[in-house]
Amino acid sequence: MTNNFNAEQAKKNAKDVKIDQTKLLEKILSGTEAISKEGKRRAVFQFPIDTLHPEHITLVEEELKTRGFNVSTHIEQSGTTVNIEVSF
Q1: How far apart are the C-alpha atoms of 77 and 41, rounded to whole Å?
Q2: Measured by CB atoms within 10 angstroms of the end CB, which terminus of the chain is less buried, N or C?
Q3: How many domains does the structure of the chain reveal?
Q4: Is the pLDDT of residue 1 over 70?
């Protein structure tokens, strides 16, 4: 069977994604845990800006800080991507 998946379908899938607060926190925690097991002390996560609600970013930052992490968030100059840096 041939897979007819194409770029237009990929764009639609990406456009429809929304990451809620719980999922965002889980992605960052699991990624940070994996990075720490490699001996690294900093992890940077990139998310398309239109997949995140600004309030969710703030709440996740606060939760990470209560867990002892240093957190900084930056919007790339293009305005399309949010970078969340976690260090410890």
Answers
A1: 25
A2: N
A3: 1
A4: no
- Any domain includes 60: yes
For residue 1, being part of any structural domain is answered with no
Tokens at residue 68, please?
């002892």
69 within domain boundaries: yes
Contact of 85 with 43, CB cutoff 8 Å: yes
Write out the residue range of the structural domain in which residue 80 sits. 42-88
**Is residue 28 situated within a structural domain?**
no
Q: What is the pTM of this model?
A: 0.84
pLDDT in tens, 32-65: 999 999 999 999 999 999 999 999 999 999 999 9
CA nearest neighbour of 52 among 28, 32, 77 = 28
pLDDT of residue 2: 76
Which pair of structure tokens corresponds to residue 54? Answer: 């600004």
Share of the chain above pLDDT 90, in %: 85
